[in-house]
Write a structure and sequence with these properties.
Helix content is about 25%, strand content about 30%. The protein is of the alpha+beta class. The strands form two sheets. Strands 1-7-6-3-2-9-10-18-19-8-15 form an eleven-stranded antiparallel β-sheet, with helices on both faces. It has an eight-stranded antiparallel β-sheet with strand order 5-4-16-17-11-12-14-13. The chain binds the ligand C=C(O[C@@H]1C=C(C(=O)O)C=C[C@H]1O)C(=O)O.
Length: about 400
């Protein structure tokens, strides 16, 4: 349910200045913000909430057209440390229509105060981004990560799991003069086909990312989509995705994700899905195998399919493992750090159009802290995994987001 009202908004500022000020309006009063750019889209969008308390929700969002409009930010494990968030859309700004903002009834009632605070904001470039209260996560050395991979392979050999996706965090100092909005801009330019996001919220911190993976989407034609994205190799100069060759290990790793998605449809007793793939797709300097799934919602008697699938899908074996619970137990026991919002999911729901939802897996991302960034990457392990290669794959995946940490 969008229910937003359009109002003209301060036309004598440039669009980037208007964006910076709207973000400042939220951050200076301790409120959350989400800024995102959809794959292939030209303009980014911004969501601000003024009722912060109602943003901390227990469940994944409902995706029906009648559900609240806002931005979901969900952790890998839902816990008190990393609360699931749904930012209600009190204020929506589309950078493609910079002359107006859209406001909820709550924000409309407070418009004079918001306008006044907006114009009283100092002209500062520094923004008070939210910082997570959690300690910085443990980071694994190459030896430690390779030991984790070896433990994963041993668990597969022992028949505890068939696939598990191990991951690690890396701490990198922020370059002098680093600015999150400029970094967001750069991510948009570098990765036109990614879902690019910058989310900052109390109790959550600030996260930047450019993910290639759709978790659950309902488009404006009422088509539900999800994808199996797994299997990775570097995109080398002169290489065409369509002619890429894949190792058995990648095909197997991918197939387990695709089978898992089919099983989710089966659990709901839905047979009428369309499956295309796998084909090779590029994501930054990487290639992945992707199978796309689609369901025409008008043609099936499942009005809550999006919501139901979202709840079954997360976390998929692209970031968790197969079977799900033993794989998650393995990660809890062996991974040795807190993934927080890495490999969780995020995206707009009913915002701005009611009935349209776009949720992505939070990959190729980093968490911003005052002096440093925490970067995250993982790799799917199968019985054929070699520890040194899996380390190398995390290094490659880290490059997507570390590209913005230059001087
Ligand atoms: C886990 C990540 O990526 C996932 C794992 C992949 C793999 O193991 O091949 C490929 C794409 C993603 O589904 C990551 O980017 O950190």
């Amino acid at each position: 349910m969008s229910g937003l009202q359009r109002i003209p908004w301060n036309p004598n500022l440039t669009t980037p200045d208007r964006l910076r000020r709207l973000v400042a309006l939220a951050l200076t009063s301790g409120k959350p913000v989400a800024l995102w750019r959809l794959p292939g889209a030209v303009h980014a969008r911004l969501c601000l909430s003024i009722k912060t308390d109602s943003a901390y929700v227990g469940l994944p969002p409902a995706l029906e057209a009648t559900a609240p409009a806002g931005f979901a930010f969900f952790p890998f494990w839902d816990s008190d440390h990393n609360p699931p968030l749904f930012l209600p859309a009190d204020l929506f700004f589309d950078l493609g229509h910079p002359e107006e903002i859209q406001v909820s009834a709550t924000a409309a009632a407070r418009l004079p105060e918001l306008r006044q605070r907006f114009s009283a904001l100092p002209d500062t470039q520094e923004l008070p981004w939210h910082v997570s209260q959690q300690p910085a996560p443990a980071t694994a050395s190459q030896t430690e990560y390779e030991a984790l991979v070896a433990a994963g392979v041993a668990a597969i050999e022992a028949g505890v799991v068939r696939k598990v996706v191990s991951s690690r965090a890396v701490r990198k100092p922020l370059p002098a003069g680093f600015d999150a909005l400029t970094a967001f801009e750069e991510l948009q330019e570098r990765y036109p086909n990614a879902f690019v996001s910058l989310v900052s919220a109390p109790g959550v911190g600030t996260w930047l990312g450019a993910t290639p993976e759709v978790l659950a989407e309902i488009d404006d034609q009422q088509v539900f989509r999800t994808m199996a994205l797994a299997g990775t190799q570097p995109l080398l100069p002169g290489m065409k995705p369509a002619t890429a060759r894949w190792a058995h290990k990648d095909l197997e790793e991918h197939a387990m994700v695709a089978r898992y998605i089919v099983n989710c449809f089966k659990q709901l007793r839905l047979r009428e899905y369309d499956e295309q793939g796998p084909r090779t797709v590029a994501a930054g300097q990487l290639l992945h195998l992707r199978t796309d799934f689609a369901v025409h919602l008008a043609q099936v008697p499942f009005p809550t399919l999006g919501t139901d699938m979202l709840r079954l899908l997360h976390p998929t074996p692209a970031v968790g493992g197969v079977p799900k619970q033993p794989a998650l137990d393995f990660l809890r026991r062996h991974e040795g750090y807190d993934r927080a919002y890495y490999a969780g999911f995020l995206g707009p729901v009913n915002l701005p159009e009611a009935g349209v939802a776009r949720l992505y897996v939070n990959l190729r991302c980093l968490q911003l802290r005052p002096q440093e960034a925490i970067l995250y990457a993982g790799t799917g392990l199968t019985i054929d995994s070699e520890p040194a290669r899996e380390w190398q794959e995390t290094e490659l995946k880290l490059r997507t987001i570390s590209a913005i940490l230059h001087d």
